[in-house]
Design a protein that fits this description.
By secondary structure, this protein is α+β, with helices and mostly antiparallel strands. The protein folds into 3 domains: 45-131, 2-Layer Sandwich (Alpha-Beta Plaits); 138-178; 181-264, Multidrug efflux transporter AcrB TolC docking domain, DN and DC subdomains (2-Layer Sandwich). The chain is 37% helix and 22% strand. The strands form 3 sheets. A 4-stranded antiparallel sheet has the order 2-3-1-4, covered by helices on one side. Helix 3 crosses helix 4 (102-116). The radius of gyration is 30 Å and the shape is elongated. The termini are far apart. 17% of the residues are buried.
């Protein structure tokens, strides 16, 4: 039996014709087949994120993360569930089986999250469910360093974010690793006693004052009370000027019984 290449050696014209046809076919495929530098990877993973301003990591875990995890733990095709509870933010990652339908899995995930919403704190934002998209990755990462105070550092980040958002073609800009601005109220216990006021009186006065500032806290001793301001007052001096009515009928300013400071979250 002759080797197969003898067939082509004795039929050179046919061999050249076959080689040419294969070369042309290869060129055609090179231009015709769709090519992507970052092809979309479909992995059935959903992310549930909930913002709870002013809440500690322990409160977030107890009041939000644990409840949502228990609700979605028995989802069909769910293979792995991981979560992270930090100050003011709950993040849950639901990973489904590789052969699961991503659209159906996300729909089931949203349905279960919707069921648990009535049991979540009223002060928190509604949970959001999104698909983990590997194509939607950052194309530019900018690192900022400065000797300026942390509050100024956060302002620089926000300023740069605004500039980048104005660039044509930029779809999203996020800031990571920057501690957010925070208004903190440190109550002097002896002043509360002198005016016959309670910590709840202070908290209620601030919440009812139409204040609008990033999530902060009232601190007394080793106890910290989370706050969420949602109004029109944004300057700490205005917050310090909030008035409280004492049981005796007199009026005191918040600055008289507490120290109000503007800084960044600790």
């Amino acid at each position: 039996m002759y080797p197969i290449w003898n067939f082509f050696l004795h039929r050179r014209h046919f061999s050249f014709l076959l080689f040419g046809a294969l070369a042309l076919w290869g060129l055609f495929l090179a231009f015709a087949i769709n090519k992507e530098s970052a092809p979309e990877v479909q992995i059935p993973i959903g992310i549930v994120m909930t913002i709870f301003p002013g809440a500690s990591a322990e409160e977030v875990e107890k009041l939000i993360t644990n409840k949502i995890e228990q609700q979605i733990a028995n989802l069909t095709n769910l293979s792995k569930l991981t979560s992270n509870s930090s100050e003011g933010v709950s993040t849950i990652v639901a990973e489904f089986s590789a052969n699961a339908d991503i659209e159906e899995s996300l729909r089931d995930l949203r349905d279960e999250v919707d069921k648990i919403k009535p049991e979540l704190p009223d002060d928190g934002n509604e949970p959001t469910v999104a698909e983990l998209n590997f194509v939607d990755q950052p194309v530019l990462i900018i690192a900022i360093s400065t000797d300026a105070p942390l509050q100024r550092f956060a302002e620089l980040g926000e300023s740069l974010k605004s500039e980048l958002q104005g660039v044509k073609g930029v779809s999203r800009v996020e800031i990571l690793g920057v501690r957010q601005r925070e208004v903190q109220v440190v109550v002097r216990k002896e002043e509360l006693v002198r005016h016959n006021l309670t910590f709840n009186d202070v908290i209620s006065a601030i919440r009812n004052s139409n204040a609008s500032a990033p999530a902060g806290s009232i601190v007394t001793g080793n106890i910290e009370y989370g706050l969420r301001f949602a109004g029109d007052i944004t300057d700490p001096s205005e917050i310090a000027g909030i008035t409280l009515r004492t049981p005796a009928g007199s009026t005191v300013y918040l600055r008289d019984i507490a120290v109000v400071s503007d800084g960044v979250e600790g």
